[in-house]
Amino acid sequence: MLLVIGFLSWLFISMARRYKKNPGTAPTGAQKLFEPIILFIQDEVAKPFLGAKYLPYMPLLLAIFFFILGLNLFGQIPFFGGANVTGNLAVTLVLAIIVFIVVNLKGNRHYWEHILWMPGIPAAVKTIITPIEILGIFIKPVTLMLRLFANITAGHIVIIIFVSLIFIFGKAGENPGAAWGASIGSVLLSLFMMAIELLVAFIQAYVFTLLTASYIGAATEKAHHADHKAEHH
Amino acid sequence: MTGSIVAIGMGLAAIGAGIGVGTIGGKALEAIARQPEAIGDIRSNMILTAALVEGAALIAILLAYLVA
């Protein structure tokens, strides 16, 4: 994990330094790869959910996206010795705790009002909804944590299964011929599964970032002042 | 005995995921057929919704895995 942190920090700091040195010029080198991705997160993830005040949260969203993406991709490398970090519940738990802290610290009055005493519905229903909403404060980051962990770990488990097919077919050493035959099929299946895992790495990083932006946007949005009693959302 | 019930549970979760993501994909294809110029928006929303549905199914599989 420190390797990924060091690699990403070196990459982004050197890019930022190059931007500061020649302002207003066309991007070169690694900037050409990362600038569209950063703009994608800004335009598709941050602006739709956070509205006008998206700029303070951009560093958080970008950090979450590239950190999770880097960790996912490094975890795919076999025999890398301890690189499968997002497959560890503790790491995803910390990421979820960060989201939990940011969302609840930045929640404004209307966010807490909606949770504790949701306006616009009869009082009997409010007593049912309030415990559910309070549970929701904790369950939303927990689902973030479990989603990322389960997706990455499921991919790794399937690869382990495909590799151990070789040993099963060879009956653990008794039948080398069948083991060689099974290894061909197993390698092909493993390649296919690794391709899917690359896709899952990108998608999970994107979904984590998107949901973080969505929760922060829900916590910091202004109230809808127009006829609150007649029509609620 | 617990092992086979766990396996049945995982299979049910996989069925749920299959039905869910299949419905999402089918509706997305219908929407693309109706309005081909919105294909970018439809594709991103489809991937997002599919990830959410698969998250639920994978949490079920994960918890079943933890039993056995």
Automatic annotation (TrEMBL), chain B:
PROSITE patterns: ATPASE_C. Coiled coil: none annotated. The keyword Ion transport applies. The chain crosses the membrane at residues 6-25, 46-67. The record marks E54 as: Reversibly protonated during proton transport. It is found in: Cell membrane. Signal peptide: none annotated. GO terms for molecular function: lipid binding; proton-transporting ATP synthase activity, rotational mechanism. It comes from the Bacteria. Residues 6-66 form the V-ATPase proteolipid subunit C-like domain. F(1)F(0) ATP synthase produces ATP from ADP in the presence of a proton or sodium gradient. F-type ATPases consist of two structural domains, F(1) containing the extramembraneous catalytic core and F(0) containing the membrane proton channel, linked together by a central stalk and a peripheral stalk. During catalysis, ATP synthesis in the catalytic domain of F(1) is coupled via a rotary mechanism of the central stalk subunits to proton translocation. Key component of the F(0) channel; it plays a direct role in translocation across the membrane. A homomeric c-ring of between 10-14 subunits forms the central stalk rotor element with the F(1) delta and epsilon subunits. This is ATP synthase subunit c. It comes from Candidatus Defluviibacterium haderslevense. The lineage of its organism: Bacteria, Pseudomonadati, Bacteroidota, Saprospiria, Saprospirales.
